[in-house]
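Input.
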Amino acid sequence: MTKKETVSIKRNIAIKAIVTPLWKQDAEAELSKAISATDKQLAKLEQEGQQVVSNIRAQSANPLDPRVQEQVAKIQQQVAGKRNELEEQKRNLLQQEIQVRDLKMDQIVDQGQVDSICDVSVGDNLIKKMQVSITVKDGIIQTIDNL
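Output.
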């Protein structure tokens, strides 16, 4: 009797969702929450940036000293960089919100991936073993497919 060589490997499984009113509502709520969180981060960033600049100027004997101005400029530059990142993030979220609104009912959309372990043996088709997707409708698995 020969022993069949088997090894366990990690694979990604694509998760797809069927668009329903509930899915759309959840996706829009999640995006709205993310946009709100980004707005709060922007407001906090501005406030903290202004506070740091005020503290630097208050601790300085001469707020017009070139070294103080340089420090303030660096802080303002860092704040501007982070602000740009957050504004880009917000633009992306707003774009996603529009895309979700435009989705048609029963359309299938990519929702992410999960990791899984599978066993492979000599003679298996590795491509087929690796290409698996799960389709869900309102959180209920509808199909498990080998692509």
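The chain has two domains: 1-20+106-147, 22-104.
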